[in-house]
């Protein structure tokens, strides 16, 4: 069997940086990728209008001077095609492709304690053996099915935004249904609304959507960015959310009602995804403070949507602002003023089943030419869950995590030596600009592997008490906020049967980085080595 120092699942942002970093340090690396190309999440989410909701300057690598010097972003927010071009450029510029096995899915990984190595099985080709096995398959990457009966009956095409075909899909003149109103549903609907004959949005939970303020970058913007990039990246690395903006010090109640309104209006009209959230320090910890921003957005919906019944249906009331990831979209609420757009509130009018011609709801059958599922992902644990991972004494990772994921620092899970997670549960990843979190994890893991090599250690495994203490800390931090109140994918509530547990670490990327660094400096405190 072929042997590698490190085998990695996934050739997205994480996998590509892992190749570069570990190869430079003299490790042999194989990345196994199910897709035919690089990109990970940005490969699969090729739906119309797909765009990152973090600015280009903060959603890019910071480790490579060559990449930074040679790549020009074209827009404030990068579109999916541009991100895919970027990652292909990185793969070519750094010559990463020879280390990637495409069109191959990892199906199993079995720990062999005697040899201190993992045997990794794939859906094609021989298994491979590695000392270290890294799950870099993405935190939000496994599409969640829509849980609707009779999908197979429908004669027209169906699509999932998270697994979109890599051929043009033309909806011109069609009657299209979109199920789901998270970021993917908002982006898809606003992208195709001008094309379709009729658009029906099926909404289970209304979201808070701020306008997308996107624009082409002016000539000279990239040079200006390069001039300050090092400082911008450094600030982001130590920030709460991996972005270069200061966390506010004022309470929402430190200012008058008028001033608060002006602050929210400014954030709404001019700024970025996190702008509203970063207006006052207590929006995610104080219910009354949160209500002020939630009510601001509700007021915007009432102002924009002309039919008050539709406006009310679009109005989020069941969870605090930003405790589910808010969306940004160009003309989202405005879209509902158009004659060919219809909103179906699934709480009043549930879907019973799909039929040959369309969707049957409690009010009757609605015919469609195409149906788009924008129903999200089995986030944070989904990618690990679909690999049969057997650790010490044959224990399966999915059995260990049956009551919710258990990790130390979001990086490793006790009983699964030499198995690392990138942006896994217990880390801040999904609540940050992801690339900054990815770079932090890759750097930490690479340092750890070098340290082990220098010391002659063959395996590393977290101590179970440290792991339990970390997960308790993750929960405690979350409990100090309003986040656990929402039925979000942060708590696994979107997947039927998934245990409810707040999975991301809310302490902030900077604090988390400092904790990870302190653990390493203390000789990897909380880890056992052989
Ligand atoms: P999200 O944000 O999880 O949104 C999924 C949407 O689909 C959400 O509105 C769900 O309603 C809805 N949904 C899920 N299952 C169903 C069923 N069975 N019936 C009806 N509606 C359903 O996923 P996205 O792909 O939009 O975005 C994922 C992340 O990508 C996003 O957070 C950003 O980080 C980027 P619910 O709210 O669960 O009631």
Q: Describe the biggest sheet?
A: 8 strands, mixed
Top-tier CATH class of the domain at 2-142 and 378-529: Alpha Beta
Structural class: alpha/beta
> Can you count the helices?
15
Portion of residues within helices: 25-40%
CATH topology of the domain at 2-142 and 378-529, what is it called? FAD/NAD(P)-binding domain
The gyration radius over C-alpha positions equals 23 Å
Bound small molecules, by name, code or SMILES, are: ligand NA7
Shape from CA axes? globular
User: What is the CATH architecture descriptor of the domain at 2-142 and 378-529?
Assistant: 3-Layer(bba) Sandwich
The low-confidence runs, each spanning 5 or more residues with pLDDT under 50, are none
Average pLDDT figure: 97
Structural summary, described in words:
The protein starts with a strand and ends with a strand. It has helices at 13-24, 41-44, 65-70, 80-93, 183-192, 221-237, 257-270, 287-304, 308-314, 332-335, 382-385, 397-400, 434-455, 464-479, 509-521, and strands spanning 2-9, 29-32, 100-101, 106-112, 117-122, 128-135, 158-160, 175-179, 198-203, 209-211, 327-329, 341-345, 351-354, 358-361, 364-367, 370-373, 388-390, 419-421, 460-462, 527-529. Helix 1 runs parallel beside helix 13 (434-455). It is 31% helix and 17% strand. It has a domain at 2-142 and 378-529: FAD/NAD(P)-binding domain (3-Layer(bba) Sandwich). The model has no long low-confidence stretch (mean pLDDT 97). The chain is α/β, with parallel strands linked by helices. Bound molecules: ligand NA7.
């Amino acid at each position: 069997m072929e042997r590698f120092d490190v085998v990695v699942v996934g050739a997205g942002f994480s996998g590509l940086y892992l190749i570069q970093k570990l190869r430079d340090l003299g490790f042999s690396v194989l990345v196994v990728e199910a897709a035919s190309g690089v990109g990970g999440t940005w490969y699969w989410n090729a739906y119309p209008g797909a765009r990152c909701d973090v600015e280009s300057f903060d959603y890019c690598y910071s480790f490579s001077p060559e990449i930074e010097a040679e790549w020009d972003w074209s827009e404030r927010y990068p579109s999916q095609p541009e991100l895919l071009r970027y990652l292909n450029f990185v793969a070519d510029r750094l010559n990463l492709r020879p280390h990637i096995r495409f069109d191959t899915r990892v199906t199993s990984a079995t720990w062999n304690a005697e040899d201190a190595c993992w045997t990794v099985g794939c859906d094609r080709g021989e298994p491979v053996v590695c000392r270290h096995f890294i799950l870099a398959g993405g935190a939000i990457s496994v599409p969640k099915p829509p849980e609707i009966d009779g999908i197979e009956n429908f004669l027209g095409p169906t699509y999932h935004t998270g697994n979109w075909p890599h051929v043009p899909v033309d909806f011109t003149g069609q009657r299209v249904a979109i199920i789901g109103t998270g970021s993917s549903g908002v982006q898809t609907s606003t992208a195709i609304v001008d094309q379709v004959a009729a658009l029906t949005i099926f909404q289970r939970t209304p979201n808070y959507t701020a306008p997308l303020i996107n624009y082409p970058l002016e000539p000279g913007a990239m040079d200006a960015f390069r001039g300050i990039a090092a400082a911008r990246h450094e600030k982001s690395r130590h920030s709460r959310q991996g972005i270069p903006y200061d966390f506010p010090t004022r309470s929402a109640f430190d200012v008058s009602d008028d001033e608060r309104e002006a602050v929210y209006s400014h954030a709404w009209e001019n700024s970025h995804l996190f702008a509203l959230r970063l207006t006052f320090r207590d929006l995610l910890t104080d219910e009354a403070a949160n209500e002020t921003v939630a009510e601001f957005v509700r007021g915007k919906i009432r102002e924009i949507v002309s039919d008050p019944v539709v406006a009310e249906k679009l109005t989020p009331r069941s969870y605090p602002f930003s405790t589910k990831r808010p969306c940004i979209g160009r003309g989202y609420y405005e879209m509902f003023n158009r004659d060919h757009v219809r909103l179906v509130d699934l709480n009043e009018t549930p879907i019973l089943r799909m039929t040959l011609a369309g969707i049957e709801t409690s009010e009757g059958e609605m015919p469609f030419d195409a149906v788009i599922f924008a129903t999200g992902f089995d986030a944070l644990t989904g990618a690990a869950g679909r690999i049969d991972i057997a650790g010490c004494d044959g224990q399966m990772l999915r059995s260990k995590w049956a009551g919710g994921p258990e990790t130390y620092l979001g990086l490793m899970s006790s009983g699964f030596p030499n198995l690392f997670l990138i942006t896994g549960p217990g880390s801040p990843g999904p609540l940050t600009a992801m690339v900054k979190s990815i770079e932090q994890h890759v750097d930490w893991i690479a340092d750890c592997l070098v340290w082990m090599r220098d010391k002659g250690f063959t395996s590393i495994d977290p101590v179970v008490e440290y792991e339990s203490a970390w997960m308790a800390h993750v929960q405690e931090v979350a409990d100090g906020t309003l986040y656990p109140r929402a039925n979000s994918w942060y708590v696994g509530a979107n997947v039927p049967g998934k245990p409810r547990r707040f999975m991301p670490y809310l302490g902030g990327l900077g604090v988390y980085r400092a904790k990870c660094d302190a653990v390493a400096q203390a000789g990897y405190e909380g880890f056992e080595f052989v």
